[in-house]
Write a structure and sequence with these properties.
The complex is a heterodimer.
Chain A (H helix, E strand, L loop, with lengths): L14 H26 L1
Chain B lengths: L2 H20 L7 H6 L6 H12 L2 H14 L9 H20 L6 H6 L2 H34 L3 H49 L6 H10 L10 E2 L2 E2 L7 H18 L1 H7 L5 H35 L8 H8 L4 H30 L3 H29 L11 H12 L4 H36 L6 H25 L7 H25 L6 H23 L10 H23 L8
Antiparallel strand pairs in B: 1-2
Helix pairs in contact in B: 1-8, 1-17, 3-8, 3-11, 3-12, 3-17, 4-12, 4-16, 4-17, 5-10, 5-12, 7-8, 7-17, 7-18, 7-19, 8-12, 8-17, 8-18, 9-12, 10-11, 10-19, 10-21, 11-17, 14-15, 17-18, 19-20, 19-21, 20-21
Chain lengths: ~40, ~575
């Protein structure tokens, strides 16, 4: 059965906030990995 | 394998098949069979996306990769979250609005039928062959390690999943992938926990990281920029990961039907987007965790006898060759080096805990020197393996993790981890076969047949196409088994040979609205594909050096450039645009 679901972003007002969050998370991971490399290498 | 391992293996696999068949009820039309009536929530879509991407190789190869080359491989996935965002903004709304079954249907709406047919054909070619190799790759490893017959392993690896893929289509694929991922991660967590438990007393998880870090295994980030400039030949660094990985992910998730077919099953645009966004969040940490297991296995082997070469089948070949005595001497020396390392590592850990820098430096140098000796011994064996007498593949990365599992993990867990290899394979192969059948049915059969089929007969025909592709993939696996382990890399390279061009066509379609000439795009795609193949052949012949991930941007920009060029030429010559009938 096909359900009609509104296409608004959940939790945020706009989808763009989700997109920024994904990219920010990527940047955070790269920073954390750099620190990890520095700490253990 | 122990009897208990066999029971765990058989129960797990039978359970998945039964669950797949149980979840098979769907409406008898293409919407039900290929898109699960566009009814799934984002959580299931996410797991289906993850289960499709993560094949057996992900769980076999990645820990081995970390063992031999360190954690740098994780950078390969850095382009993925950016690609998820681009797909959510530009690709998914178009697919959802047009209510397409396959991504390539959109290209007919935008350009013409031949552009749609060409891209769909490139997809079928690439995905059909690479799925065959995906059946074969884990089969080779399992048959080599456990002495199983390669033909039967191929049939079990590629054949059993066909039962539920045929009966339940996309719905059965999604539900089994959900259960498969739960089992896979449970098994991988248990394996990680067991490795930590098996480290000697006084060596904890952080100590394991410190030791492997001193041996250069924890260099997660490398920029790809050297004193001589950009390192274009580097396989995995920040630059190739973000740029090359972005194009590869954009093409794979945005235009490869095996993935597009997963998020088209979502009940709305919102659910598709959430599935993709969440994939952007979880993929890199998940890959980091799998690589970390490889690091733990590496640390484990610093305290335990490790095989100097992990592919047991090839070791047997060496033992039956003229190198037999030299090999035994070398394995003894290798064990002696391990013993020396066992003495040095606790001293290093104690010095690190006491922050005694001079001793840390001294012990690090000592440990590295021992590791270099061990590495050079492995290099020597690899040279023997690739010699004319043995004629084997010198890459044993994919055997490391499973060899560790079989040799050291407790009874029961071995069966579970071998089941995981099957489940991971089944998840990605089932999605691939489902998408191959959907393209064959929708882009070729439906498009070119003049007969008006009923929904029921299209549904039945789709089941036959699913069976046909399943059999095709097993045949590919059967006939290519002599190539050896290098085919694992071939799966990735095969993707890069075609993905860039397919993505290029989609980029022109989505972002260059002025281009309406289907002929220009079609011929640009043909020229770009020829360039990609030429570049690849030249790199294979050693004329110049370049990482295979760069083939993706070459394909994309090749299509864009030649489309613009041909479009201008068409305009200048005022050649008529051939209209499709």
């Amino acid at each position: 059965m096909q359900e009609h679901d509104n296409d608004n972003a959940p939790l945020f007002k706009k989808w763009s906030y989700w997109y920024v969050l994904v990219i920010a998370f990527l940047v955070l991971l790269i920073i954390l990995f750099s620190l990890f490399t520095k700490k253990f290498a | 394998m122990n009897q208990l391992d066999w029971i765990v293996l058989i129960v797990t696999l039978s359970g998945i098949i039964a669950y797949g068949i149980y979840k098979s009820r769907t409406s008898h039309n293409l919407d039900g069979y290929f898109l699960s009536n566009r009814s799934l929530p984002w959580g299931l879509v996410l797991l289906s996306i993850m289960g499709t991407q993560a094949s057996a190789i992900t769980f076999l190869s990645a820990p081995g990769q970390a063992y031999t080359e360190g954690m740098g491989f994780v950078q390969y996935y850095f382009g993925l979250p950016i690609a998820m965002v681009v797909i959510c903004i530009f690709f998914v709304p178009v697919y959802k609005r047009l209510k397409v079954y396959t991504a390539y249907e959109y290209l007919e709406t935008r350009f013409d039928n031949k552009t749609r047919t060409l891209t769909s054909f490139l997809f079928l070619l690439q995905r059909g062959l690479s799925t065959g190799l995906s059946v074969l790759a884990p089969s080779i490893i399992l048959s080599s390690l456990l002495g199983w017959d390669i033909y039967w392993t191929n049939i079990f690896m590629g054949g059993l999943l066909i039962t539920y893929t045929i009966t339940g289509g996309a719905k059965a694929v999604a539900y089994t992938q959900q259960l498969q991922l739960i089992i896979i991660f449970t098994g991988m967590f248990l394996a990680a926990y067991m490795v930590i438990q098996m480290l000697p007393g006084g060596i904890g998880f952080i100590d394991a990281l410190k030791v492997s870090g001193k041996l250069g295994k924890l260099d997660v980030i490398s920029t790809g920029i050297t004193d001589k400039g950009v390192d274009w030949s580097g396989k995995y660094n920040l630059l190739t990961g973000i740029i090359g990985g972005f194009f590869l992910s954009l093409s794979y998730f945005g235009t490869d039907q095996s993935q597009v077919g997963r998020y088209l099953t979502a009940r709305s645009l919102k659910q598709s987007r959430m599935g993709l966004i969440m994939n952007g969040f979880v993929k890199i940490p998940m890959q980091f965790f799998i690589l970390l297991i490889g690091i733990l296995v590496f640390t484990f082997y610093q305290f335990n006898k490790a095989p100097v070469f992990f592919n047991a089948k090839l070791v047997k070949k060496i033992e039956n060759s003229s190198k037999r005595d030299s090999f035994y001497t070398l394995q003894e020396n290798y064990d002696a080096v391990t013993l020396q390392k066992q003495a040095v590592i606790p001293q290093l850990v104690t010095a690190m805990d006491a922050k005694d820098k001079p001793v840390v430096n001294e012990k690090t140098i000592e440990l590295r020197s021992l590791q270099n000796r061990a590495d050079s011994m492995r290099t020597k064996v690899k040279a023997w393996v690739s010699s004319k007498e043995i004629n084997g593949d010198s890459k044993d990365t994919d055997y490391i993790f499973l060899r560790f599992v079989v040799d050291h993990l407790p009874v029961g867990l071995v069966g579970l981890l071998i089941a995981i290899i099957f489940l991971a394979s089944w998840g990605s192969i089932a999605a691939a076969i489902n998408s191959l059948a959907s393209c064959t049915m929708v882009d070729f059969h439906r498009r070119f047949t003049k007969k008006n089929e009923t929904a029921e007969s299209e549904y039945r025909l789709s089941k036959w196409y699913t069976l046909g592709w399943g059999v095709f993939c097993i045949i590919v696996a059967m006939f290519t088994y002599d190539i050896g382990n290098s085919l694992i890399e071939a799966v990735n390279i095969l993707g890069s040979l075609f993905y860039g061009v397919i993505l290029g066509v989609f980029v022109v379609a989505l972002f260059m609205k002025r281009i309406k000439n289907g002929n220009a795009v079609f011929w640009a795609a043909v020229i770009a594909e020829l360039i990609v193949l030429t570049v690849y052949i030249l790199t294979k012949k050693g004329i110049f050096s370049m990482g295979f991930l760069w083939l993706n941007p070459i394909g994309v920009f090749g299509v864009i450039f030649f489309t613009l060029l041909l479009n201008q030429l068409w305009k200048k010559k005022k050649l008529p645009v051939v209209q499709e009938l």
